[in-house]
Specification:
By secondary structure, this protein is mainly alpha-helical. It has a domain of 53 residues. It contains 2 helices and no strands. The longest helix is centred in the middle third of the chain and has 41 residues. It starts with 10 loop residues before the first helix and ends in a 7-residue tail after the last helix.
Amino acid sequence: MNFFVRLRPDDAPRRMARDRLCGMKTIRMLITIFLVVLAAAAVAGFTWANSLDKPPLVGGRVVLLLGGIACLGAIAVLWSRSPENAR
């Protein structure tokens, strides 16, 4: 088996672009996982706040709801742009 592959000069830019896209997708996945965990914590907090009948927790419910919506919006923005066109 020949482990040494001869590369043509025009292969390098394509290989670099492919590696960059793979790296961008990995970073996007890590950020998405973090945001999903954050949204799950907001949902758990919202559920816990709803189980209590104290009026002062209304502000906490609003903040948790806005945090969950912000997480979903961040995920949508994160995956809306195509990395092939980013420069």
